[in-house]
């Protein structure tokens, strides 16, 4: 059963989200928070699988809230196994569709997914399950907008990202370039003449090698590493 921490400034919205999630047999709500500080504190104490957070909370308290939730500092002695990043809570942000630049900052901070605030109950429940399982959630429109934002804001690759890029094989770079262009797995498979299953495997290995948790984070990496450059992308 996947556990969820609901973070929303409005009481009625929190109640509605809690009732919606709790009605599902495979989901449980372990707590509610009204602001970023409480979200960070309760996330550390309750260890939920998913933190469902309204973008207003992030706007108010900054993307540092997402960073502190998704990448908590380890306080364990060296002799004890530290909690790996993959087991930290995954943040699913409810966001307006016109907040692409903010979504980009949240993504770089470690957000695991984005969902429009006008999503249907069915879409929200599906998104929670997907993020809880370790996959990413975003809409095609938001993905395209994020790509455009990255193109304008990230022109040159950082040395650290360029170093990480060398860990990718030639084929993985081809796949990552296609992902950064906004292609789906089916489109990538067709253009590279490989199967969709193979594309999925490549994407999974890419995410592991670059330390990303979501496909859209791989897009950010592609631009920050210099693999894809704005001028080339716009051509």
What brief labels describe this structure?
235 residues; alpha/beta; Rossmann fold; 13 helices; 5 strands; 55% helix; globular
Radius of gyration of CA atoms, rounded to a whole number: 18 Å
Give the N-to-C terminal Cα separation.
47 Å
**Order of adjacent strands in the largest pleated sheet:** 2-1-3-4-5
State the CATH superfamily name of the largest domain. Answer: Response regulator
CATH class of the largest domain: Alpha Beta
**Content-based structural category:** alpha/beta
Overall mean pLDDT: 81
Number of strands: 5
Low-confidence stretches: 74-86, 231-235
In percent terms, what proportion of residues is strand? 5-15%
- Helix tally equals 13
CATH fold group of the largest domain: Rossmann fold
The major beta sheet can be summarized as: 5 strands, parallel
- Tally of separate domains: 2
Give the overall form. globular
